[in-house]
Amino acid sequence: MSTSPQDAAAALAERTGVARHDVAVVLGSGWGPAADGIGEATAEVPVAELPGFTPLGAPDHRGTARSVPVGDAHALVLLGRTHLYEGHGVAQAVHAVRTACAAGARTVILTNAAGGIDPSYAVGQPVLISDHLNLTGRSPLVGPEFVDLTDAYDPGLRAAARDLDPGLVEGVYAGLPGPHFETPAEIRMLRTLGADLVGMSTVLETIAARALGARVAGIALVSNPAAGTTDEAIDHLAVLDAVHAAAERTGALLRGLVTAALA
Ligand code: R1P
């Protein structure tokens, strides 16, 4: 059986009855409830039933793709993602984003739950990703594909997000392979390197989407203070609770950003 993103996009079109999805949203840990803010789905497909996808391994990553009409266009909302630490390889970690681009998406909105390195960040606060540090040691690109990542996180979409939610601040996201959380010494190192947020996703997806010419926006939800910045232990269930609690604000932001991307 073929596993190409093009075949996955064709299967998605058949299963959803929607020939083209204009914008894609990838929902990270705990972001599921925010999906309802984007709009009502006309179809929801388990991604493991599409070519090239494997069942998602991270807790709370439902593993479905929703087709959501927005005005005359359609958004593809992916509930959950494949992380590098799940062991399926880099191509698998970006397969959903490549499928979304093959399905027609010219804008990809990536979300995640992240540790807050910047001490001014509060748990439950969304932060617009302004740039990233890819510390996975990997790239989804193979061969001489010299993609410019100067404005990897689209300035126009960032401005639109700040208009929608004037309280939004911006920060640099460091993407590590995981799955372990970071040590306090690593967090001090990351702060020195210029990181404000840390997590285990997003950076490879951004590179893959930019290589395909899509615009990218990234929103991290600060789910916990990073290791060593407080006395608190880091627990994935608490991460999920913090992101769930912000669903009303983040859902409205996603809806607004999808609409702005389609304008
Ligand atoms: C840790 O709690 C998990 O949540 C985040 C981290 O990357 C890690 O997988 O997941 P998302 O980045 O998919 O939101």
From TrEMBL:
It catalyses: a purine 2'-deoxy-D-ribonucleoside + phosphate = a purine nucleobase + 2-deoxy-alpha-D-ribose 1-phosphate. The keyword Transferase applies. Residues 23-258 form the Nucleoside phosphorylase domain. Pfam families: PNP_UDP_1. Keywords: Glycosyltransferase, Transferase. InterPro entries: Nucleoside_phosphorylase_d, Nucleoside_phosphorylase_sf, Purine_phosphorylase, Purine_phosphorylase-2_CS. Its EC number is 2.4.2.1. One of its GO terms (molecular function) is purine-nucleoside phosphorylase activity. The keyword Protease does not apply. Pathway: Purine metabolism; purine nucleoside salvage. Belongs to the PNP/MTAP phosphorylase family. The purine nucleoside phosphorylases catalyze the phosphorolytic breakdown of the N-glycosidic bond in the beta-(deoxy)ribonucleoside molecules, with the formation of the corresponding free purine bases and pentose-1-phosphate. Cleaves guanosine, inosine, 2'-deoxyguanosine and 2'-deoxyinosine. This is Purine nucleoside phosphorylase. It comes from Actinomycetospora atypica.
